[in-house]
Amino acid sequence: MCCVLKAGRLLDAETTHNCLHLPARRILRNCTKMLFWPFSKMGLSGCMFSGISLFFFMHFAVTSGFLVEEKALVLMTNYPLIDGHNDVALQLRILHDNRLSKIDLHNISKVATDINRLRAGHVGGQMYAAYVICTAQEKDAVRLTLEQIDVIHRMCSEYPEFELVTTSHALRSSKKIACLISVEGGHSIDSSLAALRMFYRLGVRSMALTHTCNTPWAESSSEIYTFYPRDNNSLTHFGKAVVKEMNRLGMMIDMSHSSWDTARAVLQTSQAPVIFSHSSAFTVCNHRRNVPDDLLQALKENKGLIMVNLYSGFVACGAKGNISIAADHFDHIKNVIGAESIGIGGDYDGAAEFPEGLEDVSKYPALIQELLHRNWSEAELAGVLRLNFLRVFEQVEKVRDELKGTLPVELS
Ligand SMILES: *[C@@H]1O[C@H](CO)[C@@H](O)[C@H](O)[C@H]1NC(C)=O
Ligand SMILES: *[C@@H]1O[C@H](CO)[C@@H](O)[C@H](O)[C@H]1NC(C)=O
Ligand SMILES: *[C@@H]1O[C@H](CO)[C@@H](O)[C@H](O)[C@H]1NC(C)=O
Ligand SMILES: *[C@@H]1O[C@H](CO)[C@@H](O)[C@H](O)[C@H]1NC(C)=O
Ligand SMILES: [Zn+2]
């Protein structure tokens, strides 16, 4: 049944209320069909009736905010989200020992990410974390990381809905859910630049310098592990070599999870723009995983990107939170450094609790709707959804091309 016709005929509160709960796109599509249908079945009077109905619908839509819902979906169809951080690969290890044959990735229980929900969320690109726990540092971290890279490769090649990409061009032109691989934590390279280079060859295009532990060469924002206590040396000589080697390879440097001092040192060292793949605004929620305003300013000068984390702990500081508090982080960062420095790094399946209305990867459109309500322009949101990330990735590749004559660093 076409709701527009019902709304046009009845215009009672209950009917219009019910209409709001149908998917907006389907209503518009059905109603467009209905506009033509009367010519053959009902003649001119039917057509006029449809036209009058449409007028009432538009009036009701504009005044109710209904159009914003449709606008968000159209925007996300034209600019599918590229999200900076997702930990479903970790869940595949924890829940299924990486045995993909035992599950259907279209619909996985006990996780927040699967193909059905990625599609509903208009996700067109996802950076998947190859993460291994800090206690594996200097033990089997490299092998475990290889196994996580393997499961992402398998996931993204065994399902036709996915496509592994390793260049900005392939990411930009992908019509599928493009998969990017990121390594989450410098402990995964075991202080070996050769291991870093081989990860690049396996398709890894981003690495966070630390997870929740210090490495011998960089400092974490967390103190839950006691590895390598720092002595006023947040990014060592070797740490700077890692940054330079990542610039040379064309791998994005991710400062989420690193200490602010390490991040400041990276910003002074890197020739290419850097990212926070999943961090939010410290001014809105005072958590050390978030980014303070002075560091945001330095990030802007670097032309880098902060991809806002949606985890309740970083968004609402202890409370569960809702879409409104999540949107406050976007508003704040936009006020400080502009919308062109912002992306989204949901952190789904890497954290336990998410704000009401943002429970899994199907919910991104609700966030975009909220930002539209807050008068963010379509151009700003196209940037937040994907264009800002593509710009940074392209710039990282450009720096790599400029460094083509530079030899690999041999430091150990
Ligand atoms: C996913 O599977 C569960 C049962 O395992 C089912 O109840 C649910 O409807 C499915 N969801 C989708 C989107 O297919
Ligand atoms: C740490 O090093 C910086 C620069 O080398 C210096 O300015 C600062 O005083 C040092 N801080 C401590 C606590 O040693
Ligand atoms: C979101 O949470 C805040 C703080 O708890 C509250 O004031 C606000 O009304 C909530 N907004 C919505 C839309 O629920
Ligand atoms: C958005 O813009 C409209 C029209 O300019 C204005 O009335 C409204 O208050 C603005 N809303 C916000 C949240 O800024
Ligand atoms: Zn993380």
UniProtKB/TrEMBL annotation:
Enzyme class: hydrolase
Location relative to the cell: Membrane
Entry membrane topology: Lipid-anchor; GPI-anchor
Chief subcellular location: membrane
Protein's recorded name: Dipeptidase
Top-rank taxon: Eukaryota
UniProt record similarity statement: Belongs to the metallo-dependent hydrolases superfamily. Peptidase M19 family.
The organism's taxonomic lineage, starting at the top: Eukaryota, Metazoa, Chordata, Craniata, Vertebrata
Species for this entry: Albula goreensis
